[in-house]
Every structure is written in C-alpha cells, then in structure tokens.
Amino acid sequence: xxxxxxxxxxxxQAQVLLSERQDRRLGPFETLRLRLHLTACDWCSRVxxxxxxxxxxxxxxxx
Amino acid sequence: xxxRDLQQAIADLRPTLLRIARLQLRNDTWAExxxxxxxxxxxxxxNRFGGQSQLKTWVVGILKHKIIDxxxxxxxxxxxxxxxxxxxxxxxDELYTADGHRxxxxxxxxxxxxxxxxxxxxxxxxxxVEELPAGLARVFMMREWLELxxxxxxxxxxxTATNCFVMLHRARxxxxxxxENRWFAAAPAL
Lengths: 63, 190
Known about the structure:
Chain A has one domain. Chain A has helices at residues 3-7, 11-20, 28-40, 42-59. In chain A, α2 (11-20) packs across α3 (28-40) and α3 (28-40) packs across α4 (42-59). In chain A, 73% of the residues lie in helices and 0% in strands. Chain B has two domains: 1-73, Rna Polymerase Sigma Factor, Chain: A, CATH 1.10.1740; 75-190, Arc Repressor Mutant, subunit A (Orthogonal Bundle), CATH 1.10.10.10. Chain B has helices spanning 3-12, 14-25, 28-44, 55-73, 75-86, 119-130, 134-144, 150-157, 161-184. In chain B, α2 (14-25) packs across α3, α6 packs across α9 and α7 (134-144) crosses α9 (161-184). The chains are: A mainly alpha, B mainly alpha.
C-alpha cells in the first residue's frame, strides 16, 4: 500500500473519528488522517460542524 | 422578586424539570424523585439564589446533581440496559457506499446557532433525544448534558470505553439525521 493509501480514510471511518474526538484525544496519526480527509471532503466537514453544534445545543437544554 | 414570588417561580419550573429528568433517566419514578429532591433543595436554598444567573439555569444545575445521585442509586439497572444496547449492531449501511463513502451529502445547516433563539428547536431536539433507545440516550446525555468525562460515563454504565464510543457515535448520527429531517430540512423561517 502506498503512503497515500495508508493515510486515506473513508467517510464512514472519518465520521467515527469525528464523534470520538469529542470524547477522547485522538492520536497523532488519527489526527493527521482525519485532517487530510476533512481537507478534501466537504461532506464530512459538514458532519464535523453538525456534531459540534449538537453538543452545544444539548448543553443548552434547560438553560 | 420577593420570597413568595421566588418560591412560586421555582415550583412553576416543575413540568420543565420533569421533562428534562425523563429525557435523561428514562424512568418516571426516578425522574419524579430527582425533580422532587431538586425542588426541595432549591426552595431550601432560595435565599442563596443571588440572581447572578437565571433562576431556571440555577435550578437545572441542582437537577443535574440530583440526576447523577439517582443514577448511582439505580446503577445496576442502568448498567444492564446500556450493556445490552452496546451489544446491538448498527452500521448505518444505508448512508454509505460499499467503499465507505457517503451516498448523499448531508445538508448545509447554514447558521445553525440561529436556532438557539427558537423554543420550537429545543422541543424538536428533546423529541429527537426521547426517540433514542433508552441506554443510548442515557450514555449520550451523561456525556453531553451532564458533561461527565468519558471514563465516568463508562464506569456508571459498566461498559467498556470502546462500547461507550460506539454508543456515543450512534447517538450523534441518529440525532444528526433527526435534526436534519425535522428542523433544518424543514427550513423554518428564522
């Protein structure tokens, strides 16, 4: 496998990491792979914004 | 606000508190207990409410502590439910192609923060959370609403960290779809 293939994430994998990064510190390799994916994928960048928004919105319940 | 008005304002929060407690606890008896204890604490401590924050925010802060206490009292039941749901497989296959890319683009939600000003948005958000399976909702709300760290959430639910991450991911994916379909795709006038 090429280095590019090794770094490549699918949207499915990226969206799992987008969720997990809200709950744990990602490792440097995971962070790199996710950043590369988000740079190229507008759809996953949207999902990243949606997840952050959902966290913030839930924290406002009852305030 | 005089003492009598403050007591009445605290009592008037009961329906709101009950809905929030049910959202988190998924057990009417536990929710009633947590809300009753919250109201008693708030009424007893009303003279300590200095008005620095909104009354509702102050009382909801008390409710959060009571809910955590309630979890700890009923932790065996909670753990079994969460563990059972953690074992369920949910792959979201319909969202992805065989090679792992999304089939359809998620909607652009524009300026989603504008929704904070809309009471109806929070109604829909709470409905979306209510529709999550009980264990999933509990784990998600412990993490996001009670703001417990992941290790505490895993411990309180007796689930592994891996299961915890999987459950949180499922909850976020379901909530994302639910909010997209019921709020953002409906394009309410903001």
